[in-house]
Amino acid sequence: MNPTSQHTPSQRPFPRREILLFGGLALVVLAVFASMGPAYATRMMVEAACYAILALGLTIQWGYAGQFNAGIMGFVALGGFSSTFFSIPVNHAFWASDLPGRLGWVLLAIVAAVALVFAVSRIDRLGVPRWLRTLVTVLVALVAYLVVISWLRSVTGDIESQVDFIGGLGLPVWLGWIVGGVLAGGIGYLIGHICLGLRSDYLVIATLGIAEIIKAFLKNSDWLTRGTATISPLPWPVPDPGEVGFVTARALYFCVTAVLIAAIFFLLHRAYHAPWGRMIRAIRDNEVSAAAMGKSINRRRQEIFVFGCILMGLGGAVLTSFTGIFDPQGYLPLNHTFLVLVMVILGGPGNNLGTLFGAVLVYVIWIMSGPLALALMHLVTALGGDWFGWQPGNLDSRALQARVFVIGLLILMVLRFAPRGMIPERIAQHD
Amino acid sequence: MNELIYFFNYVVVAGSVTGCIYAMGAIGVTLIYSILRFAHFAHADMMTLGAFVVLLLTLAFPHAGDSLGLPTAIVMLPLAMIFTSLVAVGIDRVFYQPLRAHGVKPIVMVIASLGVTLMLQGLIRLFSGTGAESLYVEARKAIFRIELPGVTRPIIITEPQVILFVVTLVAVIGLHLFLTRARLGKAMRAMSDNPDLARASGINTKLIITLTWVIAGSLATLAGTLLSLDVAFKPDLSFFLLLPIFAAAIVGGVGHPYGAIAGGFLVGFAETLAVFNWSVLLRPLRDSLPSWLELPNNLALVGTEYKIVVPFFILIAVLVWRPTGLFKGKVI
Predict the structure, then answer these.
(1) Which domain CATH number covers B71?
(2) Quick check: is A81 in a domain?
(3) What ipTM does this complex have?
(4) Percentage of chain B with pLDDT > 70?
């Protein structure tokens, strides 16, 4: 390796800020341990760790490259589905019937339909006028779609009525985690391919939309996911609480997530300081001059977007496995998109350590704010009832809504007063 | 003939209603975009806010509209429009203005508008709960049935739908006259074309920005209220509106008010046509069809639960094939 590139800024300041902040965070976590008991606190820590993976995914996209992804929820749900599908036991009733064969035929028909439409869209090479080609393609696509979808509906209807749902694969959980990341990356590739060359707002709209579509699909495909009936329990990669007790099992799970985070963190650190990372930041900071230097802007953007999505899928898979229940309706934009956004912009976009800090801090606050909001709400209603005769119903759900307001306000405050986060990205100075 | 009436009721009327709502929303988005250069994601929540204010006013004075023969909610509209406009201007002053002064990237403004979205949603749900409520307080929705000779099925149209068509027409014509005739409207167009040049030629850009928020807030209130009047007020209304509105604005070409209207109707009709069950229309032909071709009972393109796919698909299609929109919007 070239020795001159080894030289790090020698006058690197002592990381006092980081140590102070992480020390404070450790105190907060210890206080939670002391007040809520170890079972609760370990659960919180595992979930915070899962969120940290999501936040690292977003910090790549937003912090490194300045792309904003508003559809984290969709990638989380996709990862969650993958880990569920791979890990839950095989549904023997399904595999013993003729339904897998029929489902397979329909899938083949889908592939054939896609191929047919693609072939028809190329007939202008044979001398057919372009307008006629477009017309024929649209018609063929419409008919093929209607035929295939009616076959699919009949098969899925039979699956639902005869065997409930198709069940899982009964494979180890970690396989589902990996596939979840790959699936999320694949969707990210498609979205990125369409939107990354355009204005940055379009990416936000498109990711917002794809997240809702993924959720709608998972919620309504009862044959695949049991929809609103939910799937539980989900197996863990470590001994589950029934065997070794809550605290030990959760601590073991935490070790798994910690190893994952350490690996991701190490890789990200290397990538950030590698020439590749410098190129990404150059593109973020000045797109025009990066392009003038011969960097392929859209290629790099595509890469970074897909990497971020992979991490989100992985984090979602780990989180869903830990929750132990796959409930498509449980994926909410607030919990799985905006909370992660707050973690990243509060911690420090583009700074992995800051993101980690933000993830744990925000998650602890988020979890503890539930009871706090309830107590506050009871106080307010008591006062409001005395003074104005205001008697709102379903207090608890309203108190939780108050947190939505606080998250929104927090985003705006951070953007205005601390746009670089609590542990800002360190800009290396080269003289 | 019955089938055609059915088609008229479930596609033409329903599609026009959705189209009007989306068009009014998309005009607001596109105006804000052309003046302030960012995608304002809190727009759908401003619609909800406007409808919510109307709901509160209607609850407070349920019989205010009786003397005029209009639903009370309509009578309360001007007040709610003023209130929502003030809120919109206030939000701009408190949250967007400082960010603009810092010269942040547009994407940061987008994130800020997402923060505003959450704040508005939280506030509305905190006070209204999460259930649906009708804007007809102590009143009944008038339904007009128009019988045609020779058919059993009547054309059905409701009072809010008629009001919606009238209001949309008035709003669009008013906006057109304002943008083309009024001094301020021309100044607004100048600023959307070139902000620096507009400022240099003595246009009060601050006033224009305020005016933009007032127009956008008023239109949002109109659309939100009329939609809630037709269906019901729901705090998560915005959720189903955001994607179609943005799809409409982009289809029409961002920064292009007339394009936004066209885009709104396009998206509205596309949604309605996609969830419409076409086998109803084909039923009369069933006897004359060859025997090998059996019509399935459900011939809708997408199920109602996948309605959101339609605007998304339109959005993607436009972004792939014509990113400037159908009417050549300003920027891609």
Answers:
(1) 1.10.3470
(2) yes
(3) 0.88
(4) 95
